C-alpha cells in the first residue's frame, strides 16, 4: 500500500524549497504527497522578495479537508510564519496525535530572509513542539528554540538535542551542517538516548531546500513504518545523493536546488 504524507508549509515558486521540494521528496521516496499552504512567497535561487500569508482559518480548513477524506500516514510541518498560524496548525492536528509528525522549524531562508516572526518562536515551543514526533532543526534553529548559544562542537549538539526533547517531541534530529569542520555530523536523540550519524560535506552552492528535503524524506520513511534510526539513515542517504547530483540541474543563478529525482532521471546533458 502506498502511504500518504501531508506537508503543511509555504510555497517556493522556483521549486527548490517549501511545498514544492516536499512533494518532490515524497514522490522520490515512494509516497503520495499532499500539501496545505501556510504562505505564498516570491522567491528564487537568489532570495525571498515578498511573502503573502494564508489566513489561519484557511490553513485549518485545508488540513481539515485532507483528513476528512484521505488517510494520512505522516505529516511534515515546515514554514508556519506566525504565532496565529502555529496555533491554527496545532488545533487542526490536535485530534490526530497517532500520526507521525515531523516538525522542521523553518526560520531563515537560504538567502538570509526571515521566514518566522519573532513572536512565533514562543508559539512554536508551546503549540507545536508538544505535538511533534520528531523535530529537525539546524544548529541556529536549535539554539534559538532553546535560547542558548549556537553549538560549535559535538558535545554541545548532543546536549541541545536532549534539551529539545524535553520541550515535547519524542525525538530531536539536530543537523550539523553549520559546524566549521570538514565533515557534517548529525545527532538524533530518542527517548533520552543519543545516536550519531556521520556525513561527508559535499562542496558546492546548490543546497537550496536541503532542510525541507531532509525533513520530508524523514516523514516519508516514517509513514512507511521505518524506525527513527532507519528513517534518518535513509533520509541522509537520499539528501546526500540529491546534493551530489545537484550540478546536473541548471536552475537559477544563486543557491540552486538539490536534485530530488537523482535516482530516477537519466542524465540529459
SSE ordering: EHEEHEHEHEHHEEEHH
N- and C-termini, Cα separation = 35 Å
CATH architecture: 3-Layer(aba) Sandwich
Helix content: 25-40%
Strand order of the largest sheet: 3-2-1-4-5-6-7-8-9
Q: Which class best fits the helix and strand makeup?
A: alpha/beta
Blueprint (SSEs and pairs):
Blueprint: E1 4-11, H1 18-28, E2 32-44, E3 47-53, H2 56-69, E4 74-77, H3 83-93, E5 101-103, H4 120-128, E6 134-135, H5 139-146, H6 154-165, E7 171-175, E8 186-190, E9 193-197, H7 210-223, H8 228-244
Parallel strand pairs: 1-2, 1-4, 4-5, 5-6, 6-7
Antiparallel strand pairs: 2-3, 7-8, 8-9
Helix pairs in contact: 1-7, 2-3, 3-4, 5-6, 7-8
Characteristic key phrases:
alpha/beta, UDP-N-acetylmuramoyl-L-alanine:D-glutamate ligase, 36% helix, 19% strand
In short:
By secondary structure, the chain is an alpha/beta fold.
Q: Would you mind describing this structure in some detail?
A:
- The protein is built from eight helices and nine strands.
- By secondary structure, it is an alpha/beta fold.
- The protein has a single domain, classed as UDP-N-acetylmuramoyl-L-alanine:D-glutamate ligase.
- The chain has a nine-stranded mixed sheet with strand order 3-2-1-4-5-6-7-8-9, sandwiched between helices.
- Strand 2 (32-44) and strand 3 form a beta hairpin.
- Helix 1 crosses helix 7 (210-223), helix 2 runs parallel beside helix 3 and helix 7 packs across helix 8 (228-244).
- The relative contact order is 0.16.
Amino acid at each position: 500500500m502506498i502511504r500518504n504524507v501531508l506537508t503543511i508549509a509555504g510555497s517556493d515558486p522556483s521549486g527548490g524549497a517549501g511545498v514544492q521540494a516536499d512533494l518532490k521528496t515524497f514522490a522520490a521516496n515512494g509516497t503520495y504527497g499532499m500539501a496545505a499552504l501556510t504562505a505564498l512567497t516570491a522567491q528564487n535561487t537568489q532570495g525571498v522578495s515578498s511573502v503573502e500569508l494564508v489566513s489561519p482559518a484557511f490553513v485549518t480548513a485545508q488540513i481539515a479537508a485532507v483528513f476528512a477524506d484521505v488517510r494520512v500516514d505522516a505529516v511534515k510541518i515546515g514554514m508556519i510564519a506566525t504565532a496565529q498560524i502555529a496555533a491554527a496548525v496545532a488545533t487542526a492536528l490536535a485530534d490526530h496525535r497517532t500520526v507521525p509528525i515531523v516538525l522542521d522549524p523553518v526560520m531563515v531562508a537560504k538567502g538570509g530572509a526571515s521566514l518566522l516572526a519573532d513572536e512565533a518562536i514562543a508559539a512554536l515551543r508551546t503549540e507545536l513542539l508538544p505535538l511533534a514526533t520528531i523535530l529537525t532543526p539546524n544548529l541556529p534553529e536549535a539554539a534559538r528554540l532553546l535560547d542558548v548559544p549556537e553549538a560549535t562542537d559535538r558535545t554541545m549538539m548532543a546536549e541541545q538535542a536532549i534539551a529539545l526533547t524535553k520541550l515535547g517531541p519524542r525525538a530531536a534530529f539536530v543537523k550539523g551542517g553549520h559546524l566549521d569542520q570538514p565533515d557534517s555530523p548529525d545527532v538524533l536523540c530518542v527517548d533520552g538516548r543519543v545516536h550519531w550519524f556521520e556525513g561527508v560535506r559535499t562542496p558546492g552552492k546548490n543546497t537550496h531546500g536541503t532542510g525541507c528535503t531532509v525533513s520530508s524524506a524523514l516523514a516519508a520513511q516514517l509513514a512507511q513504518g521505518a524506525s527513527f534510526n532507519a528513517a534518518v539513515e535513509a533520509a541522509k542517504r537520499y539528501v546526500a545523493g540529491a546534493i551530489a547530483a545537484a550540478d546536473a540541474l541548471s536552475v537559477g543563478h544563486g543557491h540552486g536546488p538539490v536534485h530530488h529525482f537523482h535516482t530516477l532521471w537519466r542524465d540529459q546533458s
